[in-house]
Design brief:
With about 550 residues, this protein is an alpha/beta fold. It folds into three domains: about 150 residues, Rossmann fold (3-Layer(aba) Sandwich), CATH 3.40.50.1000; about 160 residues, no CATH class; about 80 residues, Helix Hairpins, CATH 1.10.287. About 45% of the residues lie in helices and about 15% in strands. The strands form five sheets. Strands 1-20-17-16-3-11-12-15-13-14 form a ten-stranded mixed beta sheet, with helices on both faces. A five-stranded antiparallel beta sheet has the order 8-7-6-5-9. A two-stranded antiparallel ribbon has the order 2-21.
């Protein structure tokens, strides 16, 4: 019940339909669920002085299939041309549905792993074969996965999708060779004791070979030169992006670009995406009060590299020298730098700065650990995740009802088992029980044991039903891995990272267009398990 009954409910006069049509707006239903900005921690945009953006997969959204296929094919070329892999691996097809973000790659065993928020292993694939529950227990029942160990690699960025898919395809390829008794070439282990531990396929070297090949195509410019030669084939032009940036600028906020890409690539991509989109901006650089390329995140947040100035010349990478200035100057292009110098030159610091990026570690985690910057994580896959949840609402409600039933049975079983223990103890000791009560107590204990067995069978049946429904539900999201942000009832590792490190998250930058520049993003009230239990008890009274 409201504590302020004297306050009137807010009411708004409807806007004329012709005015809404002119604005291409709708008072009701303007904000679709997949276009919303979601909030983990309260964020008041009115207090934000500067808004920064990463470029790749943040301002610049890639055409998924062409971009990932290109990386996959170029990596295959490097493995064949420089690492001794056979030409026939060109027949291995890229599957864009097979990999999702948040997976862990186990180099020692060659496994791809999905974990939940508590570090429990939920699903494992070896190549394209899903391991059984028994196989998972055998591999990881007594092993804690320490992500800081060199044994494991994180599949946390959209750039890593082709790498992980190729790794799994090569596992299958070489396993088939092994079964045929054919030599394994570059991934054969020497005949040592290590062979007994790892098997004959050196999955660790296979990972290193794939990683080195894909690093090479990024580092030597091969990948980016191909992309720059045909930008329309690799980028999605979002007409809402320039409008969203303009809206933030018009509210008085300073905008900055902070990307790890260097000048030539950044200029080409941003010119394609923003150049000539708005009359007020003759150049894409005019959207930003500071342009920083080659930022070397996460190093930008942890080290003290100086800012360098770059000559803004098309097609050239000319560094002019170190910057010794108290303020950023519009029109100049900076390279490198560090957070301390940035905050001084931007005349904004800590919670006055909102940074928008797509990379949990490079963009979000380090900015949260080494500063008080507020964060917005771009989760491109969120659109499909939300649509999947909306279309599967009935199934999710069915699972929730089963979970409630299981919790109720578990609670009741706990009470009845405790009572049975007391009954059996009293029967065994014979203390405090009159001769006339003992037969009745023994009969009641016998009946209770049978009822407990029935309840346990019911619980196992509900477990099986929940598992079948969960498997069916997961196929509505990703046929291999299920929901991106969830793992059964728990958050997935990726979902937990989003919740822990991102103040807000959304599917694309242009979603800011749907909110006022002074909007207060209010997080839902967090509930612990006992809060939920108390709420249910209150509802039953």
């Amino acid at each position: 019940m409201s504590q302020h009954p004297e306050l009137p409910d807010p009411s708004f006069t409807p806007i004329d339909r012709d005015l809404l049509a002119a604005l291409d707006a709708d008072e009701e239903g303007m904000l679709e669920a997949q276009d919303a900005i979601y909030t983990n921690r309260d964020l008041d945009l009115a207090h934000i002085k500067a808004v920064g953006f990463d470029m790749d997969y943040t301002l610049a959204i890639y055409q998924k299939q062409p971009m990932e296929q290109l990386q996959y094919d170029l990596t295959l070329d490097r493995l064949i041309g420089g690492a001794g892999y056979p030409n026939e691996i060109r027949a291995l097809k890229y599957d864009p549905t097979f990999i999702v973000r948040g997976l862990i790659l186990d180099k020692r065993n060659g496994h791809l792993i999905k974990m939940d928020t508590h570090g429990r292993v939920a699903r494992v694939f070896y190549g394209r074969r899903r391991l059984t529950e028994d196989e998972i227990r055998e591999s990881y029942k007594n092993a804690k996965i320490r992500l800081s160990s060199t044994t494991f690699a994180s599949v946390d960025t959209l750039f890593s999708m082709p790498e992980a898919c190729l790794y799994a395809n090569l596992i299958d390829y070489f396993e088939a060779k092994k079964k045929e008794g054919k030599p394994l070439g570059p991934v054969a282990l020497p005949n040592t004791a290590e062979v007994q531990l790892l098997g004959h396929l050196n999955t660790w070297k296979l990972f290193d070979d794939v990683r080195n090949a894909i690093d090479d195509i990024h580092r030597d410019g091969t990948l980016k030169n191909i992309i720059m030669a045909d930008l329309p084939a690799y980028f999605v032009v979002d007409p809402g992006l320039p409008l969203a940036l303009h809206k933030l600028r018009s509210s008085g906020k300073k905008l900055f670009l902070l990307t790890n890409s260097f000048w030539v690539y950044t200029h080409a991509v941003m010119t394609y995406l923003l150049g000539g989109q708005q009359r007020e901006y003759a150049s894409w650089r005019q959207y930003f009060d500071a342009v920083i390329v080659g930022g070397r995140k996460p190093r930008f947040f942890t080290e003290r590299d100086p800012f360098l100035e770059v000559a803004p010349v098309e097609g050239a990478e000319q560094v002019l020298g170190e910057v010794n200035a108290e303020r950023f100057e519009r029109g100049r292009v900076y390279q490198g730098g560090n957070i301390e110098a940035f905050e001084r030159m931007a005349a904004a610091q800590g919670e006055e700065i909102l940074y928008v990026g797509d990379h949990i570690f490079g963009d979000i985690l380090r900015s949260k650990k080494d500063s008080r910057w507020r964060t917005c994580l771009i989760v491109e896959e969120l659109e499909d995740e939300v649509k999947g949840s909306l279309s599967s609402g009935g199934t999710i409600e069915q699972l929730t009802a089963i979970d409630d039933r299981r919790h109720a049975i578990d609670d009741l079983l706990g009470q009845k088992r405790a009572l049975l223990d007391r009954m059996e103890t009293s029967i065994g000791l014979g203390n405090g029980i009159g001769a006339e009560l003992r037969p009745r107590l023994e009969e009641a204990a016998k009946r209770l044991r049978k009822e407990i067995d029935v309840a346990k069978r019911s619980l196992r049946a509900l477990d099986r039903e929940a598992h079948e429904i969960q498997e069916h539900l997961d196929k509505h999201f990703n046929v291999w891995w299920g929901r991106l942000l969830k793992s059964n009832n728990e958050l997935s590792r990726f979902g937990a990272q989003v919740e822990l490190y991102a103040d807000t998250y959304t599917s694309k930058v242009s979603n800011f267009l749907r909110y006022s520049p002074v909007h207060f993003f209010r997080a839902p009230r967090e509930l612990m398990s006992h809060d939920v239990a108390m709420a249910k008890r209150g509802a039953m009274r």
